[in-house]
Specification:
- This protein is α/β, with parallel strands linked by helices.
- The chain has two domains: 44 residues, no CATH class; 166 residues, Rossmann fold (3-Layer(aba) Sandwich).
- 36% of the residues lie in helices and 14% in strands.
- The protein contains nine helices and seven strands, in the order H-H-H-E-E-H-H-E-H-H-E-H-E-E-H-E.
- The strands form two sheets. Strands 1, 2, 3, 6 and 7 form a five-stranded parallel β-sheet that branches. Strands 4-5 form a two-stranded antiparallel ribbon.
- Helix 5 crosses helix 7 and helix 8 crosses helix 9.
- Bound molecules: zinc ion (2 copies).
- One zinc ion binds next to helix 3.
Length: 244
């Protein structure tokens, strides 16, 4: 099943990504895939079952409306984070292949999962429908290098499904930041200060869309800017959340 993802050879990868084999599971090559994964591999994906209701940090237990320590000591400038998967095997590898090698097949099952998850939350929970989706902006230089902004692609697919417009140029990333790795929380926030620029009127209800929410420092910085610009209900929608 999904363990096979580890041993995908380049040749098999090519096969999986060719149009001819479009119906195959990206993890085990079973021919009965739906949205890129067969049912057993779909069921093996690490679902973010228990999580902080503000930042979606995975929690080891079920605790209803739990809030993590970080959000308790330093409340975030957003109302909630919705991320259906945990950023661990095999979701981490699938997102990397999509992001760095532009292999959209690996993102398809995750985006479908996010769509399903959002539809469920919008129908059953007290989640309000945002007026626009804002893809986490990428610095133009990096975007040119990568060829696309994965957050924008995800936002456009989600937006189409849910009927929400995507505001691609509402926020601009002004300059590159040094890598966040190895920095503590304070340093991370300082590192990110002043990197986002709001270019147009911001509606009251928005959702920031990204592929992965990691430390939350980037979305905190982006949400702060949007909040200052007038947003009142800011949600974060992502494919996956890192465990810490
Ligand atoms: Zn499979
Ligand atoms: Zn939290």
């Amino acid at each position: 099943m999904i363990k096979g993802l580890n041993s995908l050879s380049t040749l098999i990868e090519l096969k999986v990504n060719s149009a001819k084999n479009g119906g195959r599971c990206v993890a085990c090559l079973s021919p009965n895939a739906f949205n890129g994964l067969c049912i057993p591999c779909q069921n093996d994906l690490p679902v973010n079952r228990w999580y902080c209701r503000l930042c979606a940090l995975p929690l080891p237990f079920s605790a209803g409306n739990a809030i993590c320590g970080e959000c308790l000591t330093s409340p975030p400038p957003f109302t909630r984070t919705l991320a259906p998967f945990r950023y661990q095997f095999p979701v981490d590898g699938m997102i990397s292949r999509y992001k760095f090698n532009r292999q959209r097949k690996f993102a398809r099952p995750l985006i479908a999962g996010l769509n399903h998850y959002l539809a469920h939350h919008l129908a059953h929970a007290s989640v309000t429908l945002p007026e626009v989706l804002i893809p986490a902006p990428m610095h133009p230089h990096r975007r040119r290098k990568r060829g696309f902004n994965q957050a924008q692609e995800i936002a456009e697919q989600i937006g189409r499904e849910l009927g929400i417009p995507v505001a691609n140029s509402l926020v601009r990333r002004k300059h590159k930041v040094q890598t966040q790795r190895g920095l503590n929380r304070e340093q991370r926030l300082r590192n990110l200060r002043g990197i986002f620029d709001v270019c147009a009127k911001v509606p009251e209800r928005v959702a920031i869309v990204d592929d992965v929410v990691t430390t939350g420092a980037t979305v905190r910085a982006l949400a702060s800017v949007l909040s200052i610009a007038g947003a009142r209900d800011i949600q974060i929608w992502a494919l996956a959340r890192t465990p810490g």
